[in-house]
Q: What sequence folds into this?
């Protein structure tokens, strides 16, 4: 297990303009000199819109092909969520695309009903824990951050820890940004894993403001990278040795409760 370098792209999204957002992120991706994994915000092609009927793409559509192209050309993994229509249902779907073009998906479980997301989208039912470069990664989406059970690293028959890195892609407004900061740090501490979150900046169509606060945290809860209020690419190396040493010295997970998801 080697160190993993991740790049969080914090940007001001063009409202409901898929092509403009893809062009913007493509330019930003090409400016990254070296990384293993690129993380884009929630609904990175549109902003957090409920206009799914107009903006949804099929599973293998334009944005998916773009993700595969970026991953292949840059020889990195790329992840982020956008609006997908499948089987007559709309999903806030995260794709994790590997450099070889293969992919895995996660559909957002906890829909933000204060914005009527649950009236438009279908919630996911399955957690995703994937493997990349020897790391086990658990990707989640925005509002999922408020529900620690869904993000909890459980003990399994095979390992004491389900994952090494938990990721959150988000459109988290500035009015509640203190919760975002506190919960990202908490998810790292309670799971003895790295935690990283990428959030957007700017304003959306409803003049809701976003001020970023994208960041990465160590298993101790230490901030390894952080950016507020500006367009920024945060690239940080996550130390596998530091994580393993901390887990060995403080094996709190050994005392964790056993449970299953209902």
A:
């Amino acid at each position: 297990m080697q160190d993993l370098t991740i790049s969080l792209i914090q940007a001001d999204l063009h409202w409901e303009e898929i092509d403009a957002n893809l062009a913007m992120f493509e330019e930003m991706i090409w400016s990254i000199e070296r990384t293993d994994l690129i993380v884009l915000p929630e609904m990175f092609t549109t902003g957090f819109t409920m206009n799914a009927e107009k903006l949804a793409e099929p599973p293998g559509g334009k944005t998916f092909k773009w993700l595969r192209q970026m991953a292949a050309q840059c020889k990195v993994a790329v992840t982020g969520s956008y609006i997908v229509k499948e089987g007559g249902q709309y999903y806030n779907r995260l794709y994790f695309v590997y450099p070889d073009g293969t992919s895995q998906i996660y559909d957002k479980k906890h829909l933000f009903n204060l914005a009527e997301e649950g009236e438009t989208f279908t919630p996911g039912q399955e957690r995703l824990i994937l493997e990349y470069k020897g790391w086990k990664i658990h990707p989640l989406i925005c509002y999922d951050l408020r529900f620690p059970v869904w993000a909890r690293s459980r003990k399994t028959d095979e390992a004491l820890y389900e994952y090494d890195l938990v990721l959150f892609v988000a459109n988290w407004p500035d009015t509640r940004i203190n919760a975002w900061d506190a919960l990202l740090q908490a998810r790292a501490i309670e799971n003895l894993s790295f935690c990283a979150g990428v959030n957007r900046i700017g304003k959306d169509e409803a003049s809701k403001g976003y001020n970023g606060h994208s960041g990465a945290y160590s298993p101790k809860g230490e901030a390894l990278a952080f950016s507020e209020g500006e367009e920024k690419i945060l690239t940080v190396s996550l130390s596998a040795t530091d994580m393993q040493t901390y887990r060995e010295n403080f094996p709190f997970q050994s005392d964790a409760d056993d449970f299953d998801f209902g």
In short: The radius of gyration is 17 Å. The chain has a mean pLDDT of 96. The chain has seven helices and 13 strands.
